[in-house]
UniProtKB/TrEMBL annotation:
The keyword ATP-binding does not apply. Transmembrane segments: none annotated. Keywords: Hydrolase, Signal. GO terms for molecular function: hydrolase activity. This is Zinc-dependent hydrolase. Gene3D superfamilies: Ribonuclease Z/Hydroxyacylglutathione hydrolase-like.
């Protein structure tokens, strides 16, 4: 089942235009983290929600086509109203696609660069645009929880935030973590390989052994899972830098590959070839 969802996700990310029937089989599922905090999965970026009766905070909105299923799940978990506050971790369509359907008319919070970029996208529904933006940090209180939004320097894009649920010791990394797979670094939207690795390292120092980490994609994980991702990025970057230092072209580096150790990180959207090219082109010195 996990593999099936995963394949669906990869198709969604890779194939445009999106077809509604691709979502037909998708189920929105919850993982309970505290009494009123949940991780939600469906297709696209993982979500988090705090349900406090008629106050409902949602982190990310996946796709418009899934909005009804997401609403149904929130109701099943005890929400007596629709979403009252939506947070977007960044601008990608699999994280903001349901904004308009789920949060038109309520607070939609994101980093300022997300608003700038989405505003330039004439296809993006105006009533799904962020209504509250910030540059460095924003704190909210809801359902007895402190929710802290921290901006990090350009990495996956130039508008990524991580969402801390302080009392619960839970953090939503947005796409600063692709758990168990090569990450997407969107240089067309201000992303940076160096920034991504630096941010991962910095975030590692803010986690403890009990912290639960919701990745943008993949399974709920922890500090050890973030460390595995960091180790992979540092090791594969060193490999590709070695190829460059030896005078290999990008194509030669792709043909040589990263070796058996990193094979399992390959997936449909960020293949080993695409990851090698990302690293080869990275300005990391
Ligand atoms: Zn993303």
């Amino acid at each position: 089942m996990k593999l099936q969802l995963f394949t669906t996700l990869a198709l969604l990310l890779a194939v445009a235009p999106l077809q509604a029937d691709r979502f037909k089989e998708v189920q929105v599922q919850d993982t309970k983290l505290t009494e009123n905090l949940y991780m939600l999965t469906g297709a696209g970026g993982n979500m988090a929600t705090i349900i406090a009766g008629d106050k409902v905070l949602l982190v990310d909105s996946q796709y418009a086509e899934l909005a009804d299923k997401i609403k149904a799940k929130l109701g099943e978990l005890g929400a007596t109203s629709g979403v009252t506050t939506l947070v977007n971790t960044h601008l990608h369509g699999d994280h903001v696609g349901g904004n308009s359907q789920l949060a038109a008319g309520v607070d939609i919070i994101a980093h300022h660069n997300v608003l700038s970029r989405l505003t330039q996208d004439s296809q993006f529904p105006r009533n799904g645009l962020p209504t509250i933006t910030f540059k460095e940090q924003l704190k909210l209180r809801l359902g007895g929880q402190t929710i802290r939004l921290d901006y990090l320097p350009p990495s996956h894009t130039d508008g990524d935030i991580v969402v801390w649920f302080e009392e619960a010791n839970v953090v939503h990394f947005g796409d600063l973590l692709f758990e168990g797979r090569f990450p997407f670094i969107d240089t067309n939207n201000g992303g940076s390989v160096k920034g991504y690795i630096d941010n991962t390292r910095q975030l590692m120092g803010m986690l403890n052994q009990q912290t639960r980490v919701i990745p943008g994609h993949g399974q709920l994980t922890d500090k050890a899972g973030v460390q595995r991702s960091l180790d992979m990025m540092q090791a594969t970057l060193a490999i590709v830098q070695g190829y460059k230092a030896a005078g290999m072209t990008e194509q030669q580096a792709v043909e040589k590959g990263l070796g058996e150790q990193w094979k399992s990180w390959h997936w449909n959207f960020i293949t080993e070839e695409r990851w090698i090219k990302t690293l080869y082109r990275a300005d990391v010195n």
